[in-house]
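Worked Example 4.2. Read the sequence first, then its structure tokens.
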Amino acid sequence: MINKRGLTQQQVAQLAESGVKIALDLVTGLKLTFANGDQLSIAGRSVTGLTIVPAMNATDQLAIVGFDLRLRATGLSASTQRRLMATNDITGLTVVTVHQVTRCQVWWSPLTTDFRANADQVVEQSADQLRLVAQLPRQFDWSDLLPAALQTPHLTVMARALADVADESLDNVAALRQQLTTMQQMPTGAPTTSSLRVTARLVAGQVEWDPIIYKPTGDEHVFGGIEYLSYPEILAMPVQIATTGDFWSGMAALLWEISFYGIDPADRQAGRDELDAALAESRDFKADTAKLTQFLAQLKADPVTIAKYQPLVTGQVVDVDDWLPAGTTVLDQDPVLMAAFQAEFGSQYAAFIPKTDAPSS
């Protein structure tokens, strides 16, 4: 159960960037807690280095998502070394100083499928040192997520998370399994700097999830519309789940968003086509009303006539809770008024050529 893969470059960078080095001059000892409940005490003089990475936005202030513990091998008994080398299963780290005792819960990789060993903990041994390192990645690739998500314990957690939002008649486990296996069969799209993030906030003690598209460049960084992305586009984006709540509950929220129009690629494409058609209508409407605005402005008619047809240039903005993106302008013209306008000015309007903005140099 030793993780021979080692930490990725991303995890090593996270340790260096976010780790907090513990001053060892006041440390009198450590106590390690393992997954099976065993505990192991280590004298402070045997500790040559300790860095911990606190969990950001965690509900438990003493949760850590990473650590780098370096021990002097000559200060450890043979049985202690064997236990530390046997299994990567540290669940708790207690730091004892001359002033206080601090107990930290060690978060395991959510992709762990063995449940006896942390997939993100590694151990290195040299002639004079034993080094134990763990670091929870900020982002996960779909190639790692999908097979882990199909594990029964993870499917069960996600199905329970969907119980409040999904149709009661649905078998959430079966639906999730179908969605995940469908995604496994899809190709990965072109590399992108964008990522999928599931943010979270606590409302009345409950976690509310919000899946978003995050783009690191440009004036805006956060976008909605995950349900309109194709599977290849989705699979090209790494996933980051907020540590405020349970990882797999956050994943359930993301998968629910992805499957808004269905699981089958054809159903999802139909949703995308519907959006494209609505946006095209919006663009056409804006172009038509821009022409109509210019036409009425130059029309040599009495003010009462112009005011009569002025409502034709207006549109309404869709509520942010509607299915279209916020700010989308939709057609809102009175057909009777438009018919009257066409009867009175139809030939002039058809021949009218609106002015366009001059191209920027």
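Now turn to a second chain, presented in exactly the same format:
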Amino acid sequence: MKPLPLPLPLPLPLPPPPAPTHVWMMRVTGCVMLECRVELAFVVGASVIPHPDKVEKGGEDAYFIHDYGGGVLGVADGVSGWAAEDVDPALYSRELMAHASNAAASEEMESNARLLLHKAHSATCSIGAATAIVAILDRSGTLHVANVGDCGLRILRNGKVVFATSPQQHYFDCPYQFSSSEGGQSASDAAVFKAELLKGDTIVLGSDGLFDNVYDRDIESTLSVFGGSDQESAERTMALAILANKHSRDETYESPYSREAIQQGLDLPWWKKILGKKLTGGKVDDITVLVGHVVDAEILPKPTPSLVSADLVDSSPDSAAATDVEAPPSKDESPADVPDQFPEGLAESWA
């Protein structure tokens, strides 16, 4: 993911890195039981699989889950391009979500998702940038959503996706983003939605690492395996995260990411297509998934002290190989001039 072309800031001192581990993948899973005080509420599961090169620091995505009203959820994706300026992209996304969580229960919020993003953005002091989405379920069962960038949300009813957000971007792989420098977006640029939810509905909230690698039909088929019980909340999110991670590493997979690249003009030259080749592959990225199942609030127990737990999982180094993201063509270049400079994950395959 590319940052906006902004003046280079002075980097902040970075915190000491965590102790190195021998694992290639970290899964963070958890289940949150929201407080019994509204008519409808979410039972939420969360899973995170970091980019294979960013496992030691837990990736650059961040999320929060708050029990205000029927539940408040948020996901932010740190813009990885800032790493080239010696800035840890995770700092901005984590601080942004921490401020959003702190502001979620304030009386002035009144289920205003755009205001929640504004409060979080205004309070964030770290250098960097991030995309972000927040979703608030109010006491009447109305879902309020505000989104800046390419994080996304899906609403499923009776097992089918009935609503999907669309990514906001300046050009391919350069989404709208909150930023510490001039030129970034503000909460006024957010796409805002409202939807009336019913008992049994499910929402899926995630970073682009999810939606670049799985189609809506994949989400439908994966969640259909599970029921709506709170015991299965973590399993639902883990299943989606693992599927997205599998697709992200498959150079022959025709992913949403590779299809969008073709639509934006980043395709193979015509002579390679005549030979039967095509542009394929997923996007290797941090993958964050939240799944909220709508239930009657009176069946929910009081919130548990533990929010999430972490599992470290060994994975083959060969399957975890990744390279740095390459910059897109400049304004003076057309995609046809640089047919071999594709973003990370895309590759040539036989049609």
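Notes for the reader: The domain at 25-250+285-302 is CATH 3.60.40.10 (Phosphatase 2c; domain 1). The two ends are 27 Å apart (CA to CA).
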